[in-house]
Amino acid sequence: MLERLNQAMEYVERHLGETVEVAEAARIAATSEYHLRRMFSALAGMPLSEYVRRRRLTLAGAEVLAGRDTLLEIAVRYGYGSGEAFARAFRAMHGVGPGEARRTGATLSSQSRMAFRLTVEGGADMRYRVVDRPDFTVVGPKTRVPLVHTGPNHAIIDFVRGIASEDVERLEKLSDDEPRGILAVCDGLDPSRAEGTELDYYHGVITSAAAPEGSAVLPVPAGTWAVFTASGPAPEAIQYLWRDVYMEWFPSNPYRGCPGPEILRTRLSPDNSEADAELWLPVERDLSRPASRADSPS
């Protein structure tokens, strides 16, 4: 998987002065466009679209300083329809406009080419199982929140704090299917997974009961789910679980992510210092990759 991902990155690099077709990059990586975007974001720490933009502006910066072509020629070469649009993007990355950079020989920023390698660090086992599930329904309060890559999501924190404790207790009693209890459910994420894009957040349960008044309902179709568990200090155990799923499990197993809600069940110790986490992600078999012993749950 990592070799194919690097081949896709080579395709991106060769087409920075043209149109980068994400569908073609996904074909080279032998995966879906949806999964490529998700995996790249998790591994690189930025959306693929942001990486492409930064690489183009890095190359454009070198050409601006070289002084051989006009600024408009450089702008068009890297996909900008006008000098003004190019100047805004250039300034946003480099902190200086292209004209000033050329006149003064300013110091510019650089986005290095990315390549992905497998590094063995801890050798710890990842605990997971793969489950085929019939359709089910999530019920609970819902809001729109921005995606936050690192640190606390204050929009979610404020939303959960605003739910009355008696409403949470009544909701929890409706839970009648796995994963049981109050869940954090994220749905409708933007394919780019860019920070600041919005998603639907449900603070709810999986239930066959009627939804309480004022609750939202999320029907989830039948499908296959990879279920990961982790325990440790809070919130690091949860953050490391997300990281390890994308950096270690997906590249090592014949599955890929597919559209659907992402479900997290968390149980905190009385002093909130320790957490037990269970993460449910919708997946499908990657038919381009052979099954192996890694396909068996550990």
Topology, pairings included?
Blueprint: H1 2-14, H2 22-28, H3 33-44, H4 48-66, H5 71-77, H6 83-94, H7 98-104, E1 127-133, E2 136-140, E3 142-146, H8 154-161, H9 165-173, E4 183-187, E5 198-206, E6 216-220, E7 223-233, H10 236-252, E8 255-257, E9 262-268, E10 274-285
Antiparallel strand pairs: 1-7, 2-5, 2-6, 3-5, 4-5, 4-9, 7-10, 8-10, 9-10
Helix pairs in contact: 1-2, 2-3, 3-10, 4-6, 4-7, 5-6
What can you see in these coordinates?
With about 300 residues, the chain is an alpha+beta fold. About 35% of the residues lie in helices and about 25% in strands. The protein has helices spanning about 1-15, 20-30, 35-45, 50-65, 70-75, 85-95, 100-105, 155-160, 165-175, 235-250; strands spanning about 125-135, 135-140, 140-145, 185, 200-205, 215-220, 225-235, 255, 260-270, 275-285. Strands 1, 2, 3, 4, 5, 6, 7, 8, 9 and 10 form a 10-stranded antiparallel beta sheet that branches. A hairpin with a 5-residue loop joins strand 9 (about 260-270) and strand 10 (about 275-285). The two termini are about 20 Å apart. Residues about 120-125 and about 290-298 have low confidence and may be disordered.
Give a brief outline of the structure.
Helices cover 37% and strands 23% of the residues. The two termini are 20 Å apart.
